[in-house]
Hints:
Elements: E1 5-8, H1 12-24, E2 30-33, H2 46-51, H3 65-70, E3 74-76, E4 80-85, E5 90-95, E6 98-103, E7 106-109, E8 113-115, E9 128-129, H4 134-144, H5 162-169, E10 176-180, H6 184-195, E11 199-204, H7 214-227, E12 231-234, E13 238-242, E14 249-252, E15 255-258, E16 261-264, E17 268-270, E18 301-303, E19 310-311, E20 318-319, H8 324-338, E21 352-356, E22 359-365, H9 369-374, E23 379-387, E24 398-406, E25 412-419, H10 423-435, H11 440-444, H12 460-473
Parallel strand pairs: 1-2, 1-7, 2-3, 7-18, 9-16, 10-11, 10-16, 11-12
Antiparallel strand pairs: 4-5, 5-6, 8-17, 13-14, 14-15, 19-20, 21-22, 22-25, 23-24, 24-25
Helix pairs in contact: 1-8, 4-5
This protein binds flavin-adenine dinucleotide (FAD).
Flavin-adenine dinucleotide (FAD) binds at residues 8-14, 33-36, 43-44, 46-47, 80-81, 110-113, 131-132, 185, 271, 274, 305-306, 322-325, 327.
Amino acid sequence: MSDPFVVVGGDAAGLSAASKCKREAPDRDVIVYEKGDWISYAHCGMPYYVKGEVDSIGDLLSLSPAEVRERGIDLHRNHEVLAVDPERQRVRAASEDGTVEQSYGDLLVATGARAVTSPIEGTDLDDVFTMHHMQSAARLRAFLTPPEAADDSALDAGYVDLKDVGAYFDREPPETVAIVGGGYVGVEMAEAFRGWDLDTHLYQRSGRPAPPFGEAVGEAITDTLADAGVDLHLNTAVEALDGDERVQRVVAADGTVDVDCVLVGIGIRPNTGLLAGTGVEFGESGAVSIDEYGRTAVDGIYAAGDCAENVHTVTGEPDWVPLGLTANRAGRAVGQTVAGTPEPVGEIAGTAVLKAFELECGRTGIIDHERAREAGFDPVSETITAGSRSGYYPGNAETTVTVVADRASGRLLGGTIAGEDRAAVRLDTLAAAVHEGTTVGELERFDLAYAPPFSPVWDPILVAAKVLNGHLDG
Length: 474
Ligand SMILES: Cc1cc2nc3c(=O)[nH]c(=O)nc-3n(C[C@H](O)[C@H](O)[C@H](O)COP(=O)(O)OP(=O)(O)OC[C@H]3O[C@@H](n4cnc5c(N)ncnc54)[C@H](O)[C@@H]3O)c2cc1C
């Protein structure tokens, strides 16, 4: 083992890197340390598992430990890497059996992010959940399931701590839940809780849910949540969670609500503590600064995924938008680079989609005018609503599109979309245009597909570009 590639973190970025390196350079030793039991899991599917739409938690797993080992990767689960020594090119990992030291030729830190719960008081009470760990999702689904419907096969993943989860199966299911935070996790979880018929309160500090999706989408989500029976507390900060061992009340600026459980989704922070003092640099977000190949400021150390920043394709500046494709793609690129063929990790546009009950929402690029101005643009935007199919064809649904452009150059800076009929998929047209630095005039002339069951002659994206372009011309 002279020149091993060592990876810290056994999920999206880490295992993508390990797999790619082993495939490209089969003779190289590739060693992965994962601090928990779980590897190769889909965080993104957890709200749908909790809702019961995904039957088994095992369905959220991609690769088993055996499959990872079959790829020739030396996987060590339940090994937490505690220290990195860049001088000696070694890491120290701890497990139940003690501590091991491992040398590396290249090191990838792919430690992800963690859910924050501070500064809200009482988040350590029982029955307060976050949605950043599979065990937490398993507990919550068990808690929501009525005892007579309890089904062990929902937990057939093998890594679930059954004793811990079993205690929830035996309890009366909650009737009232509060969600603290109206970001995408909060909105997805509102759908999950309403799916179990819970009285659901959603608290959001600002005036609309999912702030990164902008005003038009925020308003559409607000209406959708209200129609679905979610009790929205907008412009309302939660002051404390209160109870005797178990959470029993939410204390907020607009009063106190009795609850049986709470889901806190107020944001995440990058897991970068491991690299403190190593010479690796961090951006304003606290995530690791990397170059276009995922290299940190320290020779031989790479970072990828939720713990790292990436260059935003519109501003050209580092940004932190922790999402799944970014992690998989950057990990894969690092794997290829350390195998000998440098591959850029790619730029990001902050492209994200979100399902709020039947409403599909999306955003890409820079949509906030202040942010656009800070980046040196003169933003101008238009919001339109158009049909998703020919008006006479069944299934036609109103689709709201916002496009933002730079007044001087006409360059498309970003956009958002909301609608119930394939709006999320339509967003990708905008994302591609943002990546290519397309002007709204060029976007207006895109040759998009048309047939009545799929689109009107003028797709909503084309309508939005046309209207904004007219505005720019004027
Ligand atoms: C509820 C939820 C829904 C989401 N939905 C979407 C979605 O719809 N679309 C989307 O694009 N993204 C979504 N995401 C985000 C997406 O899941 C993440 O961007 C992605 O998982 C990041 O991958 P990663 O490998 O960087 O980090 P992680 O998946 O967090 O993996 C990091 C791993 O490192 C391990 N680790 C940490 N520290 C150490 C250490 N010191 N030693 C050893 N191991 C360590 C951790 O245990 C963990 O397994 C969602 C996330 C959540 C929580």
